[in-house]
Every structure is written in C-alpha cells, then in structure tokens.
Design a protein that fits this description.
There is one protein chain. The chain contains 23 helices and 22 strands. By secondary structure, it is of the alpha+beta class. The protein has 3 domains: 184 residues; 239 residues, Rossmann fold (3-Layer(aba) Sandwich); 161 residues, no CATH class. Strands 7, 10, 13, 14, 17 and 18 form a 6-stranded mixed β-sheet that branches. A 4-stranded antiparallel β-sheet has the order 19-20-21-22. A two-stranded antiparallel ribbon has the order 1-2. A hairpin with a 5-residue loop joins β5 and β6. α4 packs antiparallel against α5, α15 packs across α17 and α18 runs parallel beside α23. It is globular, with a radius of gyration of 31 Å. 36% of the residues are buried.
C-alpha cells in the first residue's frame, strides 16, 4: 500500500541516498543545486539512473529518509547529527526512521508496525515489504530464511554502542519506538463478547449510518440486536438496497472507539529530527474490518476453510510446482484476529488489533456477498457446531495434519442475499438457516423515502464529477451545486436524525425530467422493489446523456431503457402491461383505471389474486384480496401511481418498446 510514495528517486537501494547526504555536509542548497551536485559525482552514485531525478521529488525523498533539514527560503542542508556518521550507522538510521506519507497528509512510521520480534514472518506481514525488506536487509536489521520467511536480527531495535551524534539520535528515537510498541502490545484486544453500546452512543452511530445509507432505524437495531446476541446475520433484499455497503459499514462504525486514547508517539514530521520529544497523539480505533468476499458456484470446503492447493514457486530463475496448504476466506478472516496474514498459523492464538491501510480495528469479520450463489451446505456443512455458538474451535488443515483455531467470541459473519434471485440459486438447509438471522433490507419509506431523490441525484453528480464527466460541480460539506442546473442543500434538524436535503433546480427541463423519472420509478416499485442504487444508476445515465448532447427527454428515455428495462424482464406479463398502460395514460386517471381493470379481468384467479396482493402491499390501507375489481378505482390507483399529468416518455419510447418485447416473450 502506498509503495509508490516510498523514496524512489535514486533507485531501489538505500546506499545512494546515504552517500548523497554525506556530500551535503556543511552545504546549504536548493533542490536544483542538490540534484546538480548528485549528477556531478564521479563515479556516479546511481550508474543505472536513466535521467536526472526531479529536484523536488529528490528533496522529498531525502526528507522522508530523515537525511536533510528544511531551512527558510526553500533551502536545505544535511542534519547536523549525521555529520561524520559512518555508512553502516547511517543505513540503520535511515531504515528505522523512514516516514511514509499517507493520503490524509499525515505520515506512517513503518518501524512501529514491522514485526521486529525475532520470529519468522511471511513477506506480507512486513509493511511495504517489497521495498522495505531489501532496505532492512541492507541495513543489517533482518534476514531471509531458506523457506522464504523473514526474521529480524536480535539487535534490530536495541541501542547501538557507538558514541556518535547519529547513534545518540537513533538510540533516543528507538527508546520512543520501544515505548510505543509496548503500549501497542498492552492495548491489544482480549477475547471477549461483542460489547453492547450505550443507548445514546448507539443512537448517534445509527444516525451516522443513516447519513450514508437510507436504511430504516428499526432495521439497523434488529441487526445490532442479533450481533450482540452472538448470531450471524444474512441481509436479504432487492438489488441496490445497500446490503453490501451496510454489511461493511455497520461493524466499523458501531464499535468504533467512543473516545481517543492519548499515546506518546515518536514525532512523524519530516521537518523535525527523529529524536524530537514525543507528542501526545490521539489514537482512534475503528470497530471491525469487514473482509468482503463474493460467493461463487464452485465454492467448496477448500474455499471456506482451506486445503491443499498447487502453487508456482520461483527460486533463482527456476520455476517449480509445489502443493501446500492454502486457507479459505473464513479461516483467513478468523486468523487475522490473531495477527496472522492468513497464510500461516500463529504460534499462539493471542488476540491483536487488525490493520488495513494504516487504520486500526478491534478485529476482523467476514462478509459474504451473494451467499446463495454458492452451494452453502456443501461449503459450510462441517461448520454447523462452530457457527452454532457452542464455542467449538475451527478445524483447519495444517502442514502436520489439522489445527484447532478458536473462534473469537466477538467474531461474526454477515452475508447478503439477493431476494429476487433466491428461487433460482442454491437453497440453504434448515440446519444452516438456524445458524443465521435473516433480516430484510428494503427500499426506504416515510421520511427516508422523501430524502431518497435528493440522495440519488447528489451521489450521481458526485460520481460523474469524480469521473470528470460533469464539470462546474462545487461541494461544501453536505451541499452540492451543479452550476446552471441544480443546487442540493443539506438541512440539519437537531430533533431528527434522518438526513434531509433541499433540491433547487435552475433548469426547467432538468427539473421536469427528474420529476418524471421518479414518477416512473415509484410506479415500477409497485411490482419490483428496486433499491436506491438503481435510482442512482438511472440518474447517472440521465445526466451523462445530457452532458454528451442529448435532450433531457431523450436522455431520460435512454437511461430507463439502458439501465432499468432488463431488470423488469422477470415481471409477469400483466405487471408489465400495467406499466405500459401507465406510460400511455399517466395523465388520464379514468382511462388508466379502465386499462388496469381490463388487464386484471383477463387473468386466471390465482394470478389475479397475486396481482391484487401486490397492489394491496403498495397501499396498505386497502384490502384487495377479495378479488372485487370494483374496488380498483382512480382514487386508489392515484395513491400508487402519480396520475396528475402525462409523462415525458410514452408508449412510443425506447423504454416502452423494451417492455413490449418482454410482454411478447414466452414465459411468465
């Protein structure tokens, strides 16, 4: 991660940087002068350098290696404590004090995370391993074993005996590092139950989730209740409802540290020397990292638990095929809670924090997307006892047979299931169903439904702006403005956690197209409860169509035909026929009512009952299951279908043609 931000101006070795710093002793220079001095060295420090390095990039690398000190007026000089340092000392100093910039403008200090414990570790266990392991070896800090694992030497973090300014600074820095690493060890989580949250904090976190996802509060509470009760959860619902996003967001947000821990950490400012006094630093820990994997048709025990698998090994230019244990997604997620990289078993099962992209987490969970795409009972069948909460360990393959891995008490599996596809995919046995709680994630209702159009439009504009499709978009916190077209303003209500937005259109055609889209989308939802993501996809296609020169009505028609029509192919013919009637008669309530009655009157009794049940669900105030078609009047249909005016697109549109094609097909 971020390996492209590591020093690379002078190639892949540390020594050229150290030699260049020695040439700068007693010199005050600009970046250009430093680069010029480098190119005048004979023999060259980096003979394989194809072109002179960029002066600014070179200075940045020297700063991150803690070799130069920034002065005023854009000048630099070698740190005074490096004067007279011998090469072996300088290499150790540079490798250990290295800073790596992070996207948020802060810096990572890899020495705090590197496993300098004298034990063998696979390369992936070391931060930035492709670059740093060769550097650590060059500095005499680590060595590679014959089996490919890397281990630190016994004195890697020990004070050095030489009494030079460089070593004094390094020893003071290492004292701070060892104290920080000791705190990290002491702060490791223990194997305990998933903690319930304070009610006030829980409400705050639920509101935070709702600001990102339009999910009902009661639904989030049901998921939370199941998780703290020790149950694994399956989120079921239509596509685009936010199931996968919720599965990864909820464990991270709900169990995030309420207050930061103040820790004395070494200074990570390249403008300061490494032995600068440590500063109290607030350290936050997120909840649980969600390791996301997608189930597939070929899943078996090997994909979930693990097994023997072939692997290509390259050694000294020779390639060979070996067979070794490779762990599956569940085993890897569980082992991460014990500090394993998922490739090897730890020597002891002691809980530790999980880190991803520099972020600290309490632990790691497994999220399985599209659960029923895999033969679940075949893949998970041997885990019934383990998943049943009896504290049975996870039996995993090992080089010498089988190992028993304890399942952390706070470990959970969250899976997602597409409710539209469940009848066409693998079924789950009753025994396996008892290991999970099934909770429906449906499109928003009530206050959340009123917010949905603004959220879909805002997200579509943000995405298109990131892709540089839409220009002249300004964002300010929760506000967004597309110059000349629309402004979306966040409205805070201290008494209501539901996010609210005000949409102000500055373009009449755009406002009309957007309004007509939502009339059509809500009509479709009478029969197919599509999620917010589908609405966002249509908005994205609509806006991008306008950007490339299409008229608003043509862009709307194309967006519906291209992104939504195929998802309506699974509707029954009578449902598709009602939608076609709506396109033609949205401005004539009486005519639309006649068409609906005529469509339903031609149906067999069983199918008629099913259709009336869908209409009843769309208008809970009514009970249409008695098959009295006379109850279907214009007033009732007006509550489900907006019938105030004609639509921008009608029965001659591309979208309508797609629907008529489905009606004509054999099948449902």
């Amino acid at each position: 991660m971020n390996d492209h931000l590591l020093p690379h101006s002078l190639g892949s070795a540390l020594k050229p940087y150290v030699k260049l710093a020695a040439l700068l002793e007693g010199v005050v220079a600009t970046p250009e002068q430093i680069a010029d001095r480098l190119m005048r060295v004979s023999p060259p420090l980096t003979p394989h350098l194809a072109a002179p390095p960029d002066p600014q990039a070179l200075v940045r690398d020297l700063l991150h290696l803690r070799l130069i000190e920034p002065l005023e007026n854009g000048m630099y000089r070698c740190w005074g404590h490096l004067a007279g340092a011998i090469e072996v000392q300088a290499l150790r100093y540079v490798a250990l004090t290295l800073l790596v910039p992070l996207p948020d403008g802060t810096y990572d200090l890899p020495v705090l995370r590197a496993p300098f414990d004298g034990l063998p570790h696979p390369p992936d266990a070391w931060p930035h391993h492709e670059t740093l392991l060769p550097w650590y070896a060059e500095a005499g800090l680590v060595r590679q074993r014959h089996d490919g694992l890397w281990e630190s030497l016994s004195d890697a973090l020990q004070p050095q005996p030489a009494d030079t300014a460089c070593i004094r600074v390094l020893n003071a820095f290492l004292e701070q590092v060892c104290q920080a690493r000791a705190w990290q060890t002491a702060a490791q989580p223990v194997d305990d139950a998933l903690p319930p949250l304070d009610p006030a904090l829980l409400n705050e976190r639920i509101a935070e989730i709702q600001r990102e996802l339009l999910i009902e509060r009661d639904v989030i509470l049901r998921i939370y209740r199941a998780l703290i009760a020790g149950q694994h959860v399956v989120l079921s619902g239509p596509p685009g409802a936010g199931k996968t996003h919720l599965a990864t967001l909820l464990p991270r947000v709900l169990w995030r540290d309420a207050e930061p821990t103040m820790v004395m950490l070494p200074v990570t400012d390249p403008r300061l020397p490494p032995d600068a006094p440590p500063q109290p630093t607030p350290v936050y820990r997120q909840g649980y990292f969600a390791d996301l994997t997608t189930a597939t048709e070929d899943w078996g025990v090997r994909h979930v638990i693990g097994g023997i698998a072939p692997q290509i090994v390259r050694d000294q230019g020779r390639t060979s095929l070996v067979y070794q244990v490779r762990y599956g997604c569940l085993t890897r997620a569980v082992l991460a809670n014990y500090g394993s990289d998922g490739a090897t078993l730890p020597k002891e099962f002691r809980r530790c924090e999980v880190r991803h992209n520099g972020v600290r987490y309490r632990g790691q969970w497994l999220v399985i997307d599209e659960l029923t795409r895999a033969p679940i009972d075949a893949a998970f069948g041997g885990l019934l006892t383990t998943l049943g909460g009896q504290r049975a360990p996870l039996a995993v393959p090992a080089d010498d047979g089988e190992a028993q891995v304890p399942l952390p008490r706070d470990f959970r599996i969250i899976a997602t299931l597409n409710s539209f596809d469940r009848h066409f995919l693998h079924q789950i046995s009753e025994a396996m169903k008892r290991r999970f709680v099934f909770i429906d994630i449906l499109p928003p209702t009530g206050a959340l439904a009123a917010t949905e159009p603004a959220v879909a439009l805002r997200n579509a504009l943000r995405r298109l702006h990131e892709l540089r499709v839409v220009e002249r978009v300004a964002t300010d916190g929760g506000n967004l403005a597309w110059e000349g077209f629309v402004t979306i303003t966040a409205e805070d209500d201290a008494g209501d956690a539901v996010p609210r937005y005000r949409v102000t259109w500055h373009h009449a055609d755009g406002e009309r197209a957007f309004d007509h889209f939502w009339r059509i989308f809500r009509a479709i939802r009478v029969y197919r409860r599509l999620g917010v993501a589908q609405a966002e996809a249509v908005c994205t296609a609509l806006i991008s169509g306008v950007v490339v020169g299409m008229a608003w009505d043509a862009a709307l028609d194309a967006a519906l035909a291209d992104t939504l029509a195929d998802q309506l192919q699974v509707l029954t013919r009578d449902e598709q026929a009602v939608l076609l009637a709506y396109l033609d008669h949205a401005g004539d309530a009486e005519r639309f009512t006649e068409q609906v009655r005529a469509i339903l009157s031609e149906l067999p009794v069983a199918r008629q009952r099913s259709h009336l049940a869908l209409l009843s669900d769309a208008d809970p105030a009514q009970n249409l299951t008695d098959l009295d078609l006379q109850l279907i009047d214009a007033a009732l249909l007006q509550r489900m279908f907006a019938l105030d005016s004609s639509l921008l697109i009608d029965g001659r549109s591309l979208f309508a043609q797609r629907l008529r094609t489905f009606v004509a097909e054999r099948g449902l």
